[in-house]
Specification:
Length: 252
């Protein structure tokens, strides 16, 4: 795709009827943003869908690298997934090498990944319920990708939507929308807060914009999380858009 909007991606993936379709859409979206390689993994077991932990559940990394990675048991020593346990924010692979004291074998994994043509690596932790953790690693085969805060937020939202859609397709046993939230009602204030959150505004900024205290924003956010079965704002925003509860292009 020439360009990728979050709303357009949500609409297309919601219509996807197979794991392959939603994976292709995700790959196309990432490629349009400069990342032509990606690897989606379940860092922990996911009892919610009955799937064990696994590296490279969906991926288009070079075949020789994936074979080498698995043959050498690199999933046990790769520092990128380990770092993912410490944060819910997107992070570059360079951040891991620059801020952590890596063991010799960990440095070896990172160096060999770069030699395999995985450049400018980026990781997106995907935190779910009951400690479930998934993640998307992505890279450029040509390099030169330097994401700013806005691009990181966009990629994070796209990754959450992919993760939600992919796991819901696994969970479905028929054409009914298994895993649906059911009927969810958001108040006008909750919708307003989520709309500003979709624009990338922090809680403090939202409080100032709508003239309430920061504590009031946190109160509403916690209610939103409970209603949408989410544990952080990006996931809540994506779910709200996905279920037609908010339209990000319209802030009243």
């Amino acid at each position: 795709m020439a360009s990728c909007s979050i709303e357009g991606f949500i609409e297309k993936t919601n219509l996807a009827r197979s794991l392959q379709d939603v994976s292709t859409l995700f790959g196309d979206a990432l490629r349009s943003l400069g990342y032509d390689r990606f690897c989606y993994s379940l860092i922990t077991a996911h009892p919610s869908i009955g799937v064990d932990a696994g590296h490279g559940i969906v991926e288009n990394y070079p075949d020789d690298w994936m074979s080498y990675y698995k043959a050498n048991g690199y999933e046990r020593i790769d520092p990128v997934p380990r770092y993912g346990y410490t944060t819910s924010n997107p992070f570059t692979w360079d951040l891991v090498t620059q801020t952590r004291e890596l063991r010799r074998e960990e440095k070896k994994v990172m160096n060999e990944a770069r030699d395999a043509g995985l450049l400018d690596g980026l990781a997106i932790p995907l935190c779910g319920h009951n400690g479930e953790l998934a993640g998307v690693g992505m890279a450029s085969s040509t390099g030169g990708v330097h994401p700013d805060a806005n691009l990181l937020s966009k990629i994070r939202a796209l990754s959450y939507q992919f993760h939600l859609t992919y796991t819901e397709l696994i969970r479905k046993k028929d054409h009914a929308a298994s895993g649906s939230l059911g009927h969810v009602h958001l108040s006008a204030r909750e919708k307003e807060i989520l709309l500003w959150a979709a624009e990338g505004k922090s809680d403090a900024v939202i409080a100032e914009l709508i003239g309430v205290t920061h504590a009031t924003i946190r109160f509403h956010m916690n209610n939103i999380f409970k209603k949408l079965q989410a544990n952080e704002r990006t996931l809540a925003t994506v779910k709200a858009i996905r279920h037609g509860l908010i339209l990000p292009s319209c802030i009243g």
